[in-house]
Amino acid sequence: MPVNQSVGAFNEREYVAMVYNKGPLFFDAMRKQIGDDKFYNFLRAYFDGYRYKVAFPDDLLKSAETACACSLRQEYQTWILGPVK
Predict the structure, then answer these.
(1) Residues of the chain with pLDDT under 50
(2) Structural domain boundaries of the chain?
(3) Which of 62, 64, 79 has its CA nearest to residue 23?
(4) What is the DSSP string of the chain?
(5) Least enclosed by CB within 10 Å: which of 17, 22, 36, 79?
(6) Using one digit for the tens of pLDDT, what is the confidence trace for 12-32?
(7) What is the dihedral of CA 56, 59, 60, 64, to 10 degrees?
(8) What pLDDT is recorded for position 17?
(9) Dihedral sign, CA of 52, 20, 6, 59?
(10) Could you give the CA distance from residue 73 to residue 3 in angstroms, rounded to a whole number?
């Protein structure tokens, strides 16, 4: 089940499994693909750029892709939009 759904789309067990497990796995997949230095630079830039603002999923993805000068769409599709395999 995709992570990017409203809270009401999940029961409690599904919410924990999807949001608290798949979300961190997405960040780990990004870190492994772009390397620690670029990943931590992305996190700093994202935090600084969106502090006290509303950020959307595309904002996060664009920030990460800018930091690595690469595409992370496949990781996003796999971990955030895709079903558990």
Answers:
(1) none
(2) 7-80
(3) 79
(4) --SSS-GGGS-HHHHHHIIIIIHHHHHHHHHHHH-HHHHHHHHHHHHHHHTTS---HHHHHHHHHHHHTS--HHHHIIIIISPP-
(5) 36
(6) 888 888 888 888 999 999 999
(7) 170
(8) 82
(9) positive
(10) 15
- Averaged confidence pLDDT in the chain: 90
User: How many alpha carbons fall within 13 Å on the CB side of residue 32?
Assistant: 7
Distance of CA 21 to the CA centre of its chain: 12
Confidence (pLDDT) at 84: 60
Among 37, 67, 34, 27, smallest CA distance to 49 is for 67
Residue 52: how many CB atoms within 10 A of its CB? 4
For residue 19, give every residue at least 6 positions away whose Cβ sits within 8 Å of its Cβ, in sequence order, or none: 3, 10
Enter the tokens of residue 53.
Answer: 């603002």
